[in-house]
Amino acid sequence: MSREEYLVKYLKEYLSRKQLKLSQENYSLLLREFLRFAHDPTQEGTFLVPTSDGSLTLINKFYGEPYHSQTAGAIRESLYKFIYPSKILEKARKEEIIRILDVGFGLGYNIAIALKHIWEINPNVKVEIVSLEKDVKKDIPLLPEPYKEFHKLVLSAIPEYEDEKLKLRVFLGDARKEIRKLTNFKANAVFHDAFSPYKNPELWTYEFLKLIKENIDPYGYWVSYSSALCVRKALFLLGFQVGSSREVGRKRKGTVASLKAPVPPLDEDEVRKLHLSSFSKPLRDENLSKEPLEILLDYLVEVYNLRGE
Ligand SMILES: C[S@@+](CC[C@H](N)C(=O)[O-])C[C@H]1O[C@@H](n2cnc3c(N)ncnc32)[C@H](O)[C@@H]1O
């Protein structure tokens, strides 16, 4: 079955399950947007590609996306979208323990790069990391120098490792369930690095972000490469202050959020969109168990106001 056939069939079943009768015009609109945004359920596997800073990444065929930005470069994206805006390097100067919640372990790049820079600043700081990941790949390319040793350490530490300077736990499985195992973990930084919100919606919903909120220090920073309105709106509704991180290469701004610490402000246009755009609605997963395609369809129905015809 082709991607299109699969998604058309899924949409028809969805409409019948929800007893949603759409006019021909609205059906075509919903189908067009669904085909535009949904992942490709008929594909699996990965292949290797270079990124603009010389590091390698994988493309995931199911999501149709790379694990890291090819245009920004995997290492640069990690530094400018995650590590610097999370302010963990400033915290490493003065704290004895740094806690990171890593949503989407992927190839382990973000945490390997973070470890190198944290210990460069303060070799004595203990780093506690919890990573969430449903699918650890076997063919992970090693980061180049000066990150290689840190990357090897991270990869050899899966699923659990502890010494006097590092405690790493990778919770293997659907992050929506696994995150509930976390207790007494107030993250100084959350690296939120799932695939993009429409392709991987279950990790960007209001309900999942609410679970993240329970596990972040009030002065900690939630950071992501994504500036999607559905994500920013969910964070805003959950009581986070929402700001943006700078563009890197051709990659757009990311998002920085915190419950109590100051964040770099959104510009006027971003504030206007956050409050007025019809796309500024959170993705919803009321019981944290919906199929990702259903989360996307529920969102599109809401955005295009296709209910109650
Ligand atoms: C963009 S990649 C993460 C890249 C990673 N942060 C790095 O630095 O290499 C997103 C990851 O999220 C994982 N993921 C997607 N949906 C998930 C889910 N429901 N539960 C757990 N992991 C999930 C994917 O398997 C993928 O490895």
Descriptive notes:
With 309 residues, this protein is of the alpha/beta class. The chain has two domains: 3-40 and 294-303, Four Helix Bundle (Hemerythrin (Met), subunit A); 73-288, 3-Layer(aba) Sandwich (Rossmann fold), CATH 3.40.50.150. It has helices at residues 3-17, 24-37, 74-86, 88-94, 109-121, 148-157, 175-178, 206-214, 229-237, 268-276, 292-303; strands at residues 46-50, 56-60, 65-66, 97-103, 126-133, 160-162, 166-172, 187-192, 216-224, 241-245, 254-258. It has an eight-stranded mixed beta sheet, sandwiched between helices. Helix 2 (24-37) crosses helix 11 (292-303), helix 3 crosses helix 5 (109-121) and helix 5 (109-121) crosses helix 6 (148-157). The structure holds S-adenosylmethionine. The site of S-adenosylmethionine has 19 residues, from helix 5 and strand 5.
Question: What is the compact description of this entry?
Answer:
The chain is of the alpha/beta class. 37% of the residues lie in helices and 20% in strands. It has 2 domains: 3-40 and 294-303, Four Helix Bundle (Hemerythrin (Met), subunit A), CATH 1.20.120.1180; 73-288, 3-Layer(aba) Sandwich (Rossmann fold), CATH 3.40.50.
